[in-house]
Design brief:
The chain has 207 residues and is α+β, with helices and mostly antiparallel strands. It has six helices and eight strands, in the order H-E-H-H-E-H-E-H-E-E-E-E-E-H. The radius of gyration is 16 Å and the shape is globular.
């Protein structure tokens, strides 16, 4: 079944990606009170515009990335309160690469390094990346990697816990943004595991 699932990822279309990121009713109980913030296709042009500085649309194409889809949720009450320890944003993303090798290259050579290379630099509007911690993640069926990043801004400190995992030529991503210097490894892992299950469910419909 493992090889069959990997092979099915070669049949995935850009359109079929839309059902893979989690919907509201699939979120873990701890963040079940969130509401949909946005969902969108993530083209290589969008990644270059809104991702880490210094990468062009062509760079993503050369890595082997084709496209992706994001579904993001937010806690309406937490954002204005800025309460320390409040989880304010959660999201799952599925990226489509040209093959398994490209997915592995992203996880092993791009994902972690793009965080480490940008420590001390602006990574968003009035946001500076001040620290990065690599996480040991082994709960997923295939390869997985994770980081916890601390950003400082005019409005205070934010922590982002991110996990990437592979399924064939698909890359799943789960992340949570928290007010203050906090880690959410367990919660982001649970979010990612539900995403992994959802991706497999969608793939099985095409076998």
């Amino acid at each position: 079944m493992t090889k069959a699932i990997e092979q099915v990822t070669h049949k995935v279309s850009e359109e079929s990606l839309k059902e893979m990121p989690l919907h509201l009713h699939q979120l873990p109980e701890k963040i079940s009170g969130f509401s949909l913030l946005r969902e969108s296709t993530l083209s290589n042009k969008t990644m270059a515009t809104h991702g880490f500085p210094g990468k062009s649309e062509e760079d993503y194409y050369n890595i082997g990335r084709i496209t992706g889809y994001l579904r993001e949720f937010a806690s309406a009450s937490a954002i204005p309160q800025k309460k320390d320890g409040a989880d304010i944003v959660a999201a799952t993303v599925v990226h489509l690469f040209k093959d398994e090798k490209a997915t592995e290259t992203w996880m092993n050579e791009v994902f972690i390094n793009q965080f480490l290379d940008n420590i001390g630099h602006e990574v968003g509007e009035n946001q500076k990346l001040v620290a990065v911690e690599k996480l040991e993640i082994d709960d997923f069926y295939y390869q997985s990697v994770g980081v916890r990043a601390i950003q400082d801004s005019e409005e205070g400190v934010l922590s982002t816990t991110v996990i990437d995992f592979s399924i064939g030529r698909l890359l799943g991503v789960s992340f949570i943004v928290t007010v203050g210097d906090h880690g959410r490894t367990e919660l982001v892992t649970n979010l990612g595991l539900e995403l992994e299950r959802n991706i497999v469910r969608e793939l099985l419909t095409t076998i």
